[in-house]
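Lab notebook, bench 4. The sequencing result for the construct came back, and we need a structural model before the next group meeting so we can plan mutations. Quick request posted to the team channel:

Model the 3D structure of this chain.
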Amino acid sequence: MLISHCMKRVLIYKFPYSSLFGGGERHTLDLVEGLQTHGFEFFLVSSCSVLVPEFRRRQISTWRLPFIKEPVSYGTVFLFPFVALFAFCILSSILIYFRIGYRVQTLYCLSLTEKILITPVARLLGMRVLWIEHVACGRWLVLNPFRPLYVAFSRLASIVTPSQDAAHSFIQLGVLQKRIHVIPYGLRIDAWTVERKHLPDPTKHFTLGYVGRLEPEKGVDILLRAIQEVRFSLPHIRGIIIGHGSSRRHLEWLAREFGILDRVTFVGFQLDVQKWLKNLHVLILPSVKRESFGIIVLEALCAKVPVIASDIGGVPEIIEHNKTGYLVHPGNVEALVEQILFTYHHYTDALESARRGSAKVAAQFSLETMLSRFSILL
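Done. Here's the predicted structure in token form:
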């Protein structure tokens, strides 16, 4: 086997509790595709039903291990001690194989399993270790019995979070601040900068949109309640819900109960988000918890779509209220209704805020900046 000595090689481990295509998955794919053009080679070992086919489609070396789940629920925490030794042996053997056979220099950890099992092994093999934390520290870790292992082994790794808010949550957990690196998500600015020449007249069709996973913490039910209330003031309001998840049936039932099923369209998961964004008058991000960053906010602003988002997590690090978008209190239907009405009646100002937001995204959240900062750590 002929191995080039100048190429940097990274082994990615990911064994999630569940798999959905979200911001974290998009970030991983963008990062890998971008760094491949900068002298990096990647390998994936994972049980993730999203990343495995995506990596294979990109012809990246991929091994699928479907039997390991990270211990973040009552059931998986209970079972983990019974499978930990087996998982440790398998993952350590694979790590040694890639270290010796492919001269992999870095282990890139995306889930709790490998962080608490394999980090010491990787360091003994002389490898760099990166832990990627796409979400802020929550109950899944604060109350986790394996928390002491996480905190102890975090001293052996560099930990990357997308926002200062997420970083602070891990510092509160006991992780050393010097181990944490805040690297915001980045976009291919030219790919998302589009002219919206044929946007429908908002006085005839005022379209609100949501893009993301359909899970309870995303607060899509809050958006549906807001549409229910605002329809009397704006009878031409429409809603488009883009994404999939465990809450879809419940949300469709809510729309029916609220009498707005004729105004709200559920279109499921869409790969071409840009096509949908350019037809929205406003993007709504109504999250009620765990919004570490909000990559869809970057994408909407880059496309010059006005944004109304919950004042939560890392979102205020992107949106300055009344300057680059609008912030509302999480879970507050009345506040969201008021902001929707204000945005409609001052839509020219809203478009101007989106243009300012687009300039901020171009200056601070480019893919090139993200790749440069990651390349130093890897």
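The radius of gyration is 22 Å.
Will bring this to the meeting.
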